[in-house]
Amino acid sequence: MLEITKLTKVFGQHKAVDAITFSVEKPAMIGIIGRSGAGKSTLLRMLNRLTDASDGSIVFEGRDVTALRGAEKRAWQSDCAMIFQQFNLVPRMDVVSNVLHGTLNRRSTFATMFNLYPQADIYRAIAILDRLGIAEHAPKRAEALSGGQQQRVAIARALMQEPKIVLADEPIASLDPMNAQLVMDDLRRIHEEDGRTVVANLHTLDTARKYCDRVIGMRDGRMVFDGTPEQLTTGVARDIYGADAGFSEAATSTAIETPEREIA
User: Fold this and answer.
1) Average pLDDT rounded to a whole number, residues 100-127
2) What is the pLDDT of residue 113?
3) Residue 143 CA: distances (Å) to CA of 45, 146, 182
4) DSSP 3-state assignment of 134?
5) How far apart are CA 199 and CA 158, in angstroms?
6) Residue 24 pairs with which residues in a beta bridge?
7) What is the distance between the alpha carbons of residues 21 and 4, in angstroms, rounded to a whole number?
8) Which domains does the chain have, with CATH numbers?
9) DSSP string covering 24-75
């Protein structure tokens, strides 16, 4: 299904991602954990082709994603939807229009310029919002919603793309615990009910353990762990976060890293 081979990204003299190799044979919910600067966000941006790889390959269903250009690349970015930590909504635009932006890659330039949407797409957008429990906010401006509600709008926009893979880059890092749980519950349901692969950069070990089928640990751009949540022991956490992280058996469930920024 998805095969990543020696995927590498170099910024100047720095290897942000260093020869990452793993494969996904069937739909799964995968958590990627590691300290700030470990390369997690850069990895997801390469998967979505927001950032070009310096070396290595991404193959999905037999197609070399790293070689795609133009319309084929844009089509891949629809198939591989991205959810960001800071939502990336249009604040002054109403919620349903923000969701409909998930269809931009398959609409004509004329329709995009004049915000012309088929009625079927509008109904579908509202249905997705209803599924996520926020349909009543459809006519409101996005900026009027809470952070948790805005992140669910961003999830709805991603679902409008009808993606095969959903990438979530620190989707709960800026949310309070209650909204973080709602967002993670939604991502888990999208995996289970829709049969989609969800890959999420996560900032707490307990979140990875609770929601993910598989956890990948990154340190200094390299993959240092790939296993089940049950295998994510205190010793493994030290390997991922470093001996100076101060983990105890209790602390591994609440350790939080700072949001990662891509190194340019």
Assistant:
1) 77
2) 56
3) 26, 8, 19
4) coil
5) 13
6) 2
7) 5
8) 2-253 (3.40.50.300)
9) E-S--EEEEE--TTSSHHHHHHHHHTSS--SEEEEEETTEEGGG--HHHHHH
End-to-end CA distance of the chain: 30
Structure tokens at 48: 């979505």
Q: Round to whole Å and give the CA distance between 120 and 10.
A: 44
How do residues 21-54 score in pLDDT, each as one tens digit?
999 999 999 999 999 999 999 999 999 999 999 9
In the DSSP assignment, the letter for residue 167 is: E
pLDDT at 212 over 70: yes
- Only one residue has tokens 């979530």, namely 168
213-251 tens-digit pLDDT: 999 999 999 999 999 999 999 899 999 988 766 554 334
pTM for the model stands at: 0.88
Token pair recorded at residue 23: 């494969």
pLDDT for 111 equals 53
Write the single-letter amino acid at 117. Answer: Y
Q: Which residues fall within 8 angstroms of residue 160, CB to CB, at 6 or more apart?
A: 99, 100, 101, 102, 103, 121, 124, 125, 128
CA proximity to 31, closest of 254, 259, 197? 197
| Distinct helix (H) and strand (E) counts, the chain | 9, 10
Q: What pLDDT shows up at residue 114? A: 54
CA-wise closest residue to 133 among 112, 113, 155, 118: 155
